[in-house]
Amino acid sequence: MDPFEERRQHVRLRRQFQVTIRLPRLSAEVSGETENLSQVGTLISIPAYSSFNNGDKVSIHLFFPPEMTGQTDTLVLMGPAIVKRIDHERQSLALEFSRELRTFEVSRPPPA
Fold it and tell me: What is the pTM of this model?
């Protein structure tokens, strides 16, 4: 097997989208930005990365701007995920969605 061969089954979109992540065990919600996104997960740059533990169950809101979706307003998708990896060097989290992105609910933006 070629060591540089892409082993992922789902295409990653390398684009920045705003996100909020709700961490129930701390009753906290934090903001970040995607580094890449696929149907099954995302890598998020997030200043509060150290608040998370591997295996944490979270709720994520992904904000897609109108120019991305063709909508008149920002589209917000919400769904469950699990923290799979914490990257201290990049100050980021790898999240695995508990179900595919296309099945996430359309949501209103969480209160600021």
Answer: 0.84
41: Cα separation from own chain's centroid: 7
Residues 45-90: pLDDT tens digits? 999 999 999 999 999 999 999 988 888 889 999 999 999 999 999 9
Domain-embedded: residue 12: no
Residue 59 lies in a domain: yes
Round to whole Å and give the CA distance between 100 and 41: 8
Q: Are 101 and 37 in contact (CB under 8 A)?
A: yes
- Are the beta carbons of 12 and 38 closer than 8 angstroms? yes
Domain, as residue range, for 39: 18-107
Q: How many domains does the chain have?
A: 1
